[in-house]
Structure formats: C-alpha cells, structure tokens
Amino acid sequence: MANTMRWRYGDTNPVMLPVADSTVIEIGDLVYQAGGSARPASMLADLGTEAANQEAFHDGFVGVAMQASPDGSADPIRVATSGVFEFDCLSMTADVGDLIGVDEDGGGTELLNQVVAKVATANLAVGRCAKRINPAGTKALVEIVSTVMRGGPQVMA
Description:
Blueprint: E1 7-9, E2 15-17, E3 30-34, E4 37-40, H1 50-60, E5 61-65, E6 77-80, E7 82-94, E8 99-104, E9 111-118, E10 127-129, E11 133-145, H2 147-150
Parallel strand pairs: 7-9
Antiparallel strand pairs: 1-7, 2-6, 3-4, 3-5, 5-6, 7-11, 8-9, 8-10, 10-11
C-alpha cells in the first residue's frame, strides 16, 4: 500500500520508535513493537489462525505510523498511540463502540498493514468503531488505543 495519512481527528499522543534498517514502514501502517523496534503488522510471524495472529498483534500494538521508514533507513519514526483513523475494511456493518482489529490476508498467512475488521473480544482489538457503518461500507473510522502505551481496548463494564 502507498503511504496514506489515515489520521482524521483526536489527540495522537505520539511516541518515537526505532526501525531496523531492513524494515519498510509506510505512513498509515498499523505498527507493533518487537525487540524494541517498530514493525508493520505484516511482519508478525503467522501463528496458524487469524485470531492467534490478531491476539499476538494486539499484545505488541503501539499504534499507527505517522512517518515512513524506507528500506535502508534506521531513523526512528513517529507512531500515534491514540486518535481516530480511517482504515479500509471488507464490506461490513458496525456500530459505534464495536471492537476493531487488524485484518488478515485472504490466504490466512499474514496480517494486513492498513486493513481492519470487526473482532469478537478485546484481546484481538486495536480500537473501537468511531462512526456507525450501516449500510455496509468499506471504510471504518477507528479510535485506536495502543496496548503498549495505553493498555489497549478494554472490556466494557
């Protein structure tokens, strides 16, 4: 995917994360932390099921890349840990507050860097739907919440 500024509104509370020089990150990528470095969702090793992949990503989720890191660059990048972002999604309906996680490719082998889907439980989510989608749509406004910096999506009381 091309660099796409997905931020729409709200405080982003950014952090700076280093990036390995062989890692490519584009603006708008959902980013997790491994070994102290930022990585896009697609770099997460396949754990066999979409739910297992989503949960592992949730556990290391930092936020959304606000800067790109081309191949060969080891400069730190700014990552938003909160805010409302517009992501692509497969056609779906959602209500405000529905849990949203990173989606997996059609082959079931890797997560997608800039595509989201509804998920069933908070341990799979990176945020919540911020605008109702009905009738079905292919764009979702998602209020992201970094697991690493902010404790991630919480179960409703």
